[in-house]
């Protein structure tokens, strides 16, 4: 207030003088009050200095008031936290020990070290009470929390056992009606469940962190407390991170368990990867061959699962599992809005790529941000894998395979994208598995082994020419550097770091309204599974006792070469010799 008044006065007097100076033809006595330029400048400088000083002064007072309030809050919340701990021990732990409802072991599992935590709380409360009693400008509070630092391990132990504690409590409550009755009785009297009391130590740590952060922000750097609070905060932050992580892990575990119950169909083992963290879930439109379909997506720290919600399911919220996409080295691309395709983005992964449409701009930002974070973190976690490969494989090189293409929707092309042929009921659309283009049967008569899919698949003529050209080039360069062949081979056999690559190898390309007609017979024919003949006609199988059928045709080419199948077991022979008299294809 005072600050503003001074400000106003100075401005008024300055304003007057400037007017007088510029007016020129004013009476003589007015001219006596005229200011020189130099004086005006001096006044402006003084004015600014006063303003700055007052602002700083007010801020200082504000900060000190905030400090007082935070100290008070630390004390008050510590007191009420103590009441909860007291309730755990005197309303539950003690009586349950006396009643002998449960064994000593079970009680230890449920109540863990809560008695020690309560003791620590009592000490903290009395220390805080003393401080608050004589609280002043120079008081410190960081020292109390520094005193607590060595005991913070109690909270780590508590947090580590919390999950077991809650499940043990539920298990025993279901098993013993007397215990159940006892718990219900206490709930009726206090209005608080034991489980809500048991979680309080876990919630206390983030609270300490928040309040001490505020305290540090509002403590002058030359105040004794500044260093003390900063040090205490360091200790708390370590425990807070631990607590947060274990809470997240537990939530993810619960989410995965919940999802396991909700998903039906060919669901992969979601517990395959340890510490898989759940991020977000929601409905997105997935652009499919004919239309956009709503799918429910579940984003984890390494995979993106999508499923379709089953209508009229007898069990509430049931989903049919479609696919789990390994997000290692996946990427997302923003798709500019166009009519009928709003709030879209593309997900590109090795095994499957597609366009997704969010409901609105905010939803799109949320999903893109979340997926991007997961991809980056995943890359960071496994960064060592890509650089420690044989011969120091470059990060972006990996096994040299590009992501799967985004399939061009059926409605986007009325004619083959390579030749003028029109698509009809008989002349059907096919998707090239390498570039995603819509092509006719004649332009996609060949198939090729695609590294990203780990299998042989339909490709268009353009892609076939490109791929076989690349291969010739590679063979040529390998012939001139024979020592490199081993390195190249091992690189080609790299499998996914998570071992999840099989997720993409579903027989059916889900979400395709009308799947392509059976892929053209690969040229050369595919490798038959071990112990089985390539002959698919059961009537033509040789009679018992007949000599075994001739060995199957070569895996890929007639001359032996490196195996290109990424999922081929490394101890198996790299290729088979050509059958006698086989004609070149
Ligand atoms: Zn064509
Ligand atoms: Zn193609």
Structural notes for this entry:
There is one protein chain. The chain is an alpha+beta fold. The chain has 15 helices and twelve strands. It is 47% helix and 11% strand. It has helices at residues 2-23, 28-31, 37-99, 104-111, 114-133, 142-148, 153-175, 177-190, 194-198, 200-217, 224-262, 361-381, 383-387, 461-480, 485-492, and strands spanning 263-264, 278-287, 292-300, 303-309, 319-326, 331-335, 344-348, 353-357, 430-431, 438-439, 446-450, 455-459. The chain starts with a helix and ends in a 93-residue tail after the last helix. It folds into four domains: 2-54, no CATH class; 59-257, Dbl homology (DH) domain (Dbl Homology Domain, Chain A, Up-down Bundle), CATH 1.20.900; 264-387, Roll (PH-domain like), CATH 2.30.29; 410-526, Zinc/RING finger domain, C3HC4 (zinc finger) (Herpes Virus-1, 2-Layer Sandwich). Helix 6 packs across helix 11, helix 7 crosses helix 8 (177-190) and helix 7 packs parallel to helix 11. One zinc ion binds at residues 416, 418-419, 421, 439-440, 442-443.
């Amino acid at each position: 207030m005072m600050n503003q008044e001074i400000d106003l006065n100075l401005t008024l007097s300055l304003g007057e003088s400037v007017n007088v100076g510029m007016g020129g033809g004013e009476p003589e006595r007015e001219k006596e009050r005229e200011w020189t330029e130099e004086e005006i400048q001096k006044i402006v400088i003084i004015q600014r200095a006063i303003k700055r000083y007052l602002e700083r002064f007010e801020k200082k007072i504000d900060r000190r008031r905030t400090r007082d309030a935070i100290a008070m809050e630390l004390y008050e919340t510590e007191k009420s936290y103590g009441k909860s701990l007291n309730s755990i021990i005197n309303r539950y732990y003690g009586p349950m020990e006396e009643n002998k409802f449960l064994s000593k072991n079970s009680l230890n599992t449920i109540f863990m070290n809560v008695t020690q935590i309560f003791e620590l709380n009592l000490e903290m409360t009395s220390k805080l009470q003393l401080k608050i009693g004589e609280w002043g400008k120079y008081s410190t509070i960081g020292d109390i929390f520094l005193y607590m630092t060595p005991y913070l391990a109690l909270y780590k132990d508590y947090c580590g056992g919390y999950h077991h504690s809650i499940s043990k409590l539920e298990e025993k409550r279901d098993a013993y009606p007397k215990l159940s009755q006892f718990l219900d009785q206490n709930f009726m009297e206090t209005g608080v469940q034991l489980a809500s009391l048991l979680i309080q130590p876990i919630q206390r740590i983030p609270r300490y962190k928040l309040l001490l952060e505020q305290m540090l922000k509002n403590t002058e750097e030359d105040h004794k407390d500044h260093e003390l609070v900063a040090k205490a905060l360091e200790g708390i932050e370590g425990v807070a991170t631990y607590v947060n992580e274990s809470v997240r892990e537990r939530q993810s575990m619960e989410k995965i368990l919940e999802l396991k119950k909700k998903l039906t169909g060919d669901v992969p083992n979601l517990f395959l990867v340890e510490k898989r963290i759940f991020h977000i879930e929601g409905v997105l439109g997935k652009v499919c061959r004919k239309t956009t379909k709503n799918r429910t997506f579940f984003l984890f720290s390494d995979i993106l699962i999508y499923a379709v919600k089953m209508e009229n399911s007898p069990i509430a919220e049931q989903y049919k599992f479609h696919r789990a996409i390994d997000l290692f080295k996946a990427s997302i691309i923003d798709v500019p809005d166009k009519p009928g395709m709003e709030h879209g983005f593309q997900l590109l992964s090795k095994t499957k790529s597609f366009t997704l449409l969010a409901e609105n701009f905010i939803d799109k930002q949320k999903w893109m941000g979340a997926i991007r974070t997961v991809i980056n973190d995943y890359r960071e976690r496994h960064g060592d894998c890509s650089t420690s490969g044989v011969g120091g494989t470059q990060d972006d090189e990996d096994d040299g395979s590009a992501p799967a293409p985004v399939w061009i929707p059926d409605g986007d092309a009325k004619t083959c994208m390579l030749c003028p042929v029109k698509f009809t009921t008989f002349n059907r659309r096919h998707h090239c598995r390498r570039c995603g283009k819509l092509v006719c049967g004649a332009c996609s008569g060949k198939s090729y082994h695609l590294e990203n899919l780990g299998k042989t698949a339909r490709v268009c003529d353009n892609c076939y020419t490109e791929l076989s050209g690349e291969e010739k080039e590679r063979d040529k360069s390998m012939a001139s550097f024979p020592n490199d062949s081993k390195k190249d081979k091992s690189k080609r056999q790299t499998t996914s770091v998570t071992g999840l690559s099989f997720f993409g190898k579903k027989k059916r390309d889900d979400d395709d309204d009308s799947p392509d007609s059976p892929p053209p017979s690969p040229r050369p024919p595919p490798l038959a599974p071990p112990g089985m003949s390539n002959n698919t006609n059961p009537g033509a199988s040789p009679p018992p006792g007949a000599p075994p059928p001739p060995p199957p045709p070569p895996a890929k080419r007639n001359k032996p070469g490196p195996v290109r199948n990424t999922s081929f077991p490394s101890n198996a022979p790299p290729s088979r010799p050509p059958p006698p008299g086989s004609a070149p294809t």
